[in-house]
Write a structure and sequence with these properties.
Elements: H1 3-23, E1 34-35, E2 41-43, E3 46-56, E4 71-81, E5 87-88, E6 93-95, E7 101-103, E8 120-121, E9 126-135, E10 140-145, E11 155-160
Parallel strand pairs: 1-11
Antiparallel strand pairs: 2-3, 3-4, 4-9, 5-8, 6-7, 6-10, 10-11
């Protein structure tokens, strides 16, 4: 192919790309941003603040102890509704470094100050408590969303660094 043929092909590819962009949907796509733990994070009318983390090998003692498949991760957080009407607080998801997701557990048995799974926050009110995950030990990002219809929701990510207490022993197979 001649030099002019290559230039013509490049120009046609550029024009085709421009036309495809011009014809694409104008609907904005929610872009996840990453925030540090402890910062207030606004997603629509909801303002999330992750206050603390705690890793647990089990909850409770003896025969009634609740044992996780991996490890329990308790997140203590607050959710404020800055809107003018009641707002549901959607379920939360943890995302690991490889992109694998873990949904919040729906059973808060044994969790003090559990926020619950079906939760609503009134206007100008703040709810505080814990949400629970069963995940391998590691650093994560918490994905939080607003109370919107599917396809129109907005999401933000909050860094959840790995912070183990010195009293938490390793599980078999961990270092």
């Amino acid at each position: 192919m001649s030099r002019w043929g290559i230039v013509a092909c490049g120009a046609m590819a550029l024009a085709a790309g421009w036309l495809l962009c011009a014809c694409s949907s104008a609907r904005p796509v929610a872009v996840d941003r990453v925030h540090r733990m402890g910062e207030p994070v606004a997603v629509g009318p909801l303002i999330y603040t992750v206050i603390d983390t705690e890793w647990l090998n089990q909850m409770g003692e003896g025969a009634t102890a609740r044992v996780p498949q991996n490890r329990f991760l308790l997140l203590r957080l607050s959710v404020t509704n800055s809107g003018a009407s009641n707002s549901g607080v959607p379920g939360m998801t943890l995302v690991d470094a490889s992109g694998k997701t873990y949904t919040e557990l729906t059973d808060g048995h044994g969790v003090s100050e559990w926020l619950g799974y079906l939760r609503t926050v009134s206007p100008a009110q703040t709810e505080r408590g814990h949400v629970l995950f069963d995940v391998p030990t590691g650093a994560y990002r918490l994905r939080v969303t607003n109370d919107a219809e599917p396809g129109t929701e907005k999401a933000e990510l909050i860094e959840i660094p790995l912070q183990l207490s010195p009293s938490l022993p390793n599980l078999p197979g961990e270092r």
